[in-house]
Every structure is written in structure tokens, then in C-alpha cells.
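Practice problem 4.
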């Protein structure tokens, strides 16, 4: 007898590879283009870096809108629009002749990325799973962690063919890979005779959504919900710390006397090691209370940030690489599983969009604050200790989320 694979797992696979490609090119891979742009146009690093901040700001502001749109029109349409727009932005950037044109191209990329990153891909997966939501989101989000593997290819393209040709190739790749994968996605299992996790629509339902939020939830209602506020504030803290570490870890390692070649390996290891946390902690979230596993994840992040203060030692480096990536990777999965367990999946996009807006605010504040601390005190030790304690506050916020039965 042939065993049929639940179609939701095909959606997980499609979203995995979309996340892998988009994250590789737009997030981790963007740094590869810094020096070629500076060399050709004599722009400052500040001018080029502003484009990256512009991308993050636009995506943060767009997230609540994207969340509303994905609930209204479905993930498939937004993924198609997003992949097409990102491809246009990358190709447009290859024709850059001025700083303004560079910023306009980055605007296209940021707008398109809003349609094919976390808010949309997590919503697509969340609607097809409930019992196995931790595993499904863990696999899907591992695409973000695995994206570091593509960096050598991007570097090779730029070095061999030049940055303009590389951008055209990556833009065409966005269409050739992203569009077919987006067409695999379906918006709702109920349309195909299934319930989440593959149960038959003729059988018993997995949960009673009568206690969940109504589908007509508004962004204002999301902002007023106490449990969601606690979760959103915790996510803002997580991304504040994560963005700060990702942006400043190379100069920090340099101040600790670690050679640049070694620092590069450490930085590349961070997203790859996060895959362990995405899978392991996502699975634990399916077995145990998600609030407690999320608190454990924040604890691991706190330990990892503290370890940065003595990362120049072998024990400190090992502690950082074992705890920090696993912690932030686990939370990136668990934040979605909590939303899926507590609330109606049909409102998932709106809630995730608001959450990503909070995260964007943290991402804007954190790196700037970290740079100010370094400029003022001449080292990063104070900010890492402060962030380590701030992550403990996030644990308190998570534990303030009431039991699921109390949500209404």
C-alpha cells in the first residue's frame, strides 16, 4: 500500500528553499557587495550601510500590512508577488549608476522581501499544522540557518564575473527558483478536504477553535491583547540582541585579539548552529509547554551573550556557539508555535506581522545602542552584560502569558 505524504510537508519544503534563497541573497549575502560598491563609486561605508538599515526599516514598517494581506489574500499570492519584486530589485540594482538609484533598488528588494520572508512563509506552514507545528516550523525556518552555505557561491560570482553580473544571476535565480516554489503553496487544508496535520475533514477536529480569536481580528485588537503584548515585547528584545550581535560580532572578536580569518569561521557557524535549536527546541515545544521551552531558549541566549565577554578563551567560545545560536534559533520557531496554539490560524498573518514590527524596532535600536556603548567605553563588555540581563526580562514576559484555555 502506497503511503501518501501529507501535502502540508510539501509546503514546508517549498518554504524552506524560499527562505534559504532569500536569506542567502538579501541578508547574509548583502555584505559581499559592500567593497565592490565602495570601490567603484567611492561611497562611504555609512552610505552603503544606510541601504541595509533602509531595508530593515521598510520591512519592519511593512510587516503589519503584510500580515493583514496574507490573512486576506493568502500566502501563495504574496509569495509570488514577493519573489517577482525581489528579482526586479536585484536586476535593477545591477544597473546602479548613482546612490539614489541604489536606494531605489534596495526599496524594491525590501518591499518584495516582505512578501516572501518570515510573516508569509510561517503563515503558510502554520495553517497546515497544529499538533506538529513545532516540527514543521523548525524544518521551514532551518532554511534561514542553512543560508550561510550559499555565501561561498555569491563570493565566487562577484569575484569571477563582477558584482553587476552577479546581481543579474541572483535576480534571475530568484524567479527560476522562487516562482515554481510559490506555486506549490496552498492557502488552506480545508479547501482540499483536510484538517491541520492531515486529518480527514470527516473525522474529529484536533482542537476547538471556539476559544480562539475570531478571524476578523484587527491590528488594534492584537496590540491590546496582554498575552500577545508580552510575546511581542519578548520578540523585540530577542531581535534587539540578535541584530546587535550579528552586526558587531566581527569588530568585537577583533578587539578580543581573534584573527579575522578565525572570526569569519565563527560568524559563519552562528546561523548553521542555529539549525540545531530550530529543530530540537521546536520539537520540544510540541511535547512540553511552549512557554517553558521558549523561556529555556531565552536562557540559552542570555548565557551565550554573557559568554561573549570571554569569547577569546576556548571555553567562552564553545559556550557562545553552543548556547546563543541554539537559543535564538529555537525562539524563531517557538514564537510561531505559540501563536498557532493560542489563536485562530486564520489570523496568524496579522499577529505575526505585528510581531515582526516589534522585532524591527528592536533591530533598529539594538545595533545603534551597541555602537554608542563601544564609542563611549571603548569596549563591548558592558553592552553584552546588559543584554544578558535584558534577556532574563524576556523570560518573565513569556511566563506572564496565560494558559491557552484562558485565551478568548
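Answer key:
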Amino acid at each position: 500500500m502506497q503511503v501518501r505524504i501529507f501535502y502540508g510537508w510539501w509546503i514546508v519544503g517549498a518554504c524552506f528553499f524560499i527562505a534559504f534563497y532569500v536569506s542567502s541573497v538579501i541578508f547574509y549575502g548583502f555584505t559581499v557587495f559592500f567593497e565592490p560598491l565602495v570601490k567603484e563609486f567611492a561611497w562611504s561605508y555609512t552610505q552603503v550601510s544606510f541601504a541595509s538599515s533602509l531595508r530593515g526599516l521598510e520591512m519592519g514598517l511593512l510587516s503589519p500590512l503584510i500580515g493583514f494581506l496574507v490573512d486576506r489574500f493568502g500566502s501563495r499570492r504574496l509569495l509570488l508577488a514577493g519573489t517577482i519584486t525581489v528579482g526586479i530589485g536585484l536586476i535593477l540594482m545591477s544597473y546602479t549608476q548613482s546612490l539614489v538609484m541604489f536606494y531605489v533598488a534596495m526599496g524594491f528588494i525590501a518591499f518584495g522581501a516582505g512578501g516572501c520572508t518570515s510573516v508569509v512563509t510561517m503563515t503558510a506552514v502554520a495553517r497546515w499544522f497544529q499538533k506538529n507545528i513545532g516540527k514543521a516550523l523548525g524544518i521551514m525556518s532551518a532554511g534561514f540557518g542553512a543560508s550561510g552555505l550559499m555565501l561561498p557561491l555569491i563570493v565566487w560570482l562577484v569575484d569571477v564575473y563582477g558584482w553587476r553580473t552577479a546581481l543579474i544571476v541572483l535576480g534571475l535565480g530568484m524567479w527560476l527558483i522562487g516562482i515554481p516554489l510559490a506555486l506549490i503553496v496552498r492557502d488552506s487544508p480545508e479547501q482540499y478536504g483536510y484538517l491541520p496535520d492531515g486529518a480527514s475533514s470527516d473525522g474529529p477536529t484536533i482542537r476547538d477553535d471556539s476559544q480562539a480569536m475570531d478571524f476578523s481580528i484587527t491590528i488594534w485588537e492584537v496590540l491590546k491583547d496582554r498575552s500577545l503584548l508580552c510575546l511581542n515585547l519578548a520578540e523585540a528584545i530577542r531581535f534587539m540582541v540578535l541584530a546587535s550581535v550579528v552586526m558587531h560580532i566581527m569588530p568585537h572578536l577583533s578587539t578580543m585579539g581573534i584573527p579575522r580569518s578565525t572570526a569569519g569561521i565563527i560568524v559563519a557557524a552562528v546561523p548553521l548552529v542555529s539549525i540545531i535549536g530550530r529543530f530540537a527546541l521546536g520539537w520540544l515545544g510540541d511535547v512540553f509547554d511552549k512557554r517553558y521551552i521558549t523561556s529555556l531558549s531565552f536562557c540559552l541566549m542570555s548565557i551565550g551573550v554573557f559568554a561573549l565577554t570571554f569569547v577569546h578563551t576556548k571555553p567562552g567560545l564553545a559556550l557562545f556557539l553552543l548556547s546563543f545560536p541554539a537559543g535564538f534559533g529555537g525562539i524563531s520557531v517557538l514564537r510561531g508555535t505559540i501563536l498557532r496554539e493560542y489563536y485562530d490560524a486564520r489570523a496568524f498573518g496579522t499577529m505575526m506581522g505585528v510581531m515582526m514590527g516589534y522585532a524591527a524596532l528592536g533591530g533598529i535600536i539594538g545595533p545603534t545602542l551597541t555602537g554608542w556603548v563601544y564609542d563611549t567605553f571603548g569596549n563591548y563588555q558592558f553592552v553584552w552584560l546588559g543584554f544578558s540581563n535584558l534577556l532574563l526580562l524576556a523570560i518573565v514576559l513569556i511566563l506572564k502569558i496565560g494558559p491557552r484555555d484562558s485565551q478568548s
